[in-house]
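Appendix B, Record 12. Input sequence as logged:
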Amino acid sequence: MDLAALDLLAGSDIKFRRETRLDIALAKNHPIALVFLPAADIPTFVGEGRVDLGITGLDQIEEHKAIAIPTDDSGVEEVLDLQFGSCKLQVQVPERGAIDDPKGLIGKNVCTSYVGLTERYFANLEGVDSGTSHSSVPMHDKLQTKIKYVGGSVEAACALGVADGVVDLVGKDFSTKQFAEAHADTSIESGETMRAAGLKAIDTLVESKAVLIKSKHPSNIGLVNIIASRMRGLIAAQQFVLCQYNIPRSLLGMAKEITPGKRAPTITQIDEADWVAISSMVEKKKIASVMDELASCGATDILVLEISNSR
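Logged structural output:
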């Protein structure tokens, strides 16, 4: 996630230099201090108002909520889906084992880095109250299932006889270079890693992704909104391309159906009778089929341009 987050900062024109072994860097062009923290720590620092904005995974946010119940003054607000880092927090068991249902793990050993979410999950399976009521009895003492914390290499726990099942992250897009780069500093396993460890998924606790979060009481709400707006525009630019073409005015209705744009297409009269030029934002993943449709309906001079940024 580190590299993808750095790309977002660069695209938002936040310039800084991080010195070796330092976890804090000052922006050169904004009154901003950047703090580099483990993904699991970010919801705590943002949630307690020590940091205004943070980039982390939805799984870490949910884990933080499971451990520290949000209040009016604490906790985080989700600002923006950053469109990378898709993964799932799943219950996994040995592929050749006898367990095919999560209830089969009740009373057994389960290893995870997500103790809060895992305890809440098994509390629901066992019918144990996992609500907000204050109790002097810790959750792990209420459960039949023994939840053990493991910081890394969770997928090895079953093979080494430490656990009967695990709760761990599995990347959705594990075969792509983007996923490998986006999670270079995390312990997220890929589907291939899970299968190589002889495991299979039998349930999903959280479908996660990278998100921008903010404190409920940021110190500079104006700057927070500017940064969020820049990131929102940058993400939109990565998802869309600009399609430009010429078409007879008589076919304008059909063209607008093919390329409706984000709000509406831009239509310009050109120096040829009964013809117009159209510019429209089109989702990048759909552009090939859109070009085919435009050509079939009579459009000419079809161009596709990359968008570097937008608002």
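Residues 173-186 have pLDDT under 50 and may be disordered.
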